[in-house]
Amino acid sequence: MRAFTRGLLGIAGFLVLWELLGRSPLIPAEALPPPSVVVGELVTQLTSPDFISHVVATVLALLIAIVIAVVIAVPSGLVLGSIPAVRHATRAVIEFLRPIPSVALIPLALVMLGFGPETKITLAVYAALWPILFNTIYALDELDSLLVDTARVFGTGRIGVLFLVALPSALPFVLTGIRLAATTALVVMVSVELMAGSQIGIGYFIMEARSGPGRMDQVLVGTVVAGAIGVLLNNGLERVRRRWVAW
Questions:
Q1: Contact 201, 58 (CB under 8 A)
Q2: Which residue ranges in the chain fall short of pLDDT 50?
Q3: How far is C-alpha 157 from the geometric centre of its chain's CA atoms?
Q4: pTM for the predicted model, two decimal places
C-alpha cells in the first residue's frame, strides 16, 4: 500500500505540473492541452466506435506478434543454449541482425508485404524476438549441472532433459523476456502504424489527429491509451511471473 500510495502521489504531481504548464502563457494552448482537456477528449473517444476499433486493431496485432515471437524464440533459444556448436555458428549472424532497429526495416517490409497488418506484425515480431531469445539462452547458461546429471542418471535422453529440466529452469527468464518484448513490440507497432501509412490502429489515429489543423488533444489521447496498454501488459505479465514461478 505504501508503494501504491507513492505511485499515486507521483502521478498526481505529474498531472498538476502538466496542468500548470498547459495553462501557462509560456506554452500555446493548442501545443500542449492540459490534462483536464485531454481527459474530457479521452472520455469522448472511448465512446466512439471508430477509436475503439483502432485500439482493438493495435492490441490484437500486438498479441499475435508476441505469440509468434514466443513460438520462434523459445525453441530457438533452447537449441542455441544447449548446443554450443550451433550457438557459435550462428553468433555472427545474430549479432549482426540484433542491433538493426525495426523501424529501419519499414521500407523493406512495405515492399515485401505491402501496407496491410502483416507489415506491423512482422516488424513487431522482429523486435520482440531478441529479448526472449537471449533470456532463454542466458537461462540455459545458468542451468544447474547437477539437475542435468541427475536426469541423465535416471535415463532421460537429450530431448527429455531439454523439455523436462532445461525449460522449467529457464521459465522465469523466459517470462521476463516476454515482459520486455511485449513493451518493445508495442513501441514498434505504434511507430509502424504512425510512419508506414497504416489504415487502422492507435498510430494511425495519432497520425490523423496531427494532420490538417492538428488536434493535439486527440494526439495525447492516443499517446495516453498506448501508454496505458503498455502498463497493463507489463503489470499483467509481472503478475503471471510471480504466480507461475514464484519460486
A1: yes
A2: none
A3: 36
A4: 0.84
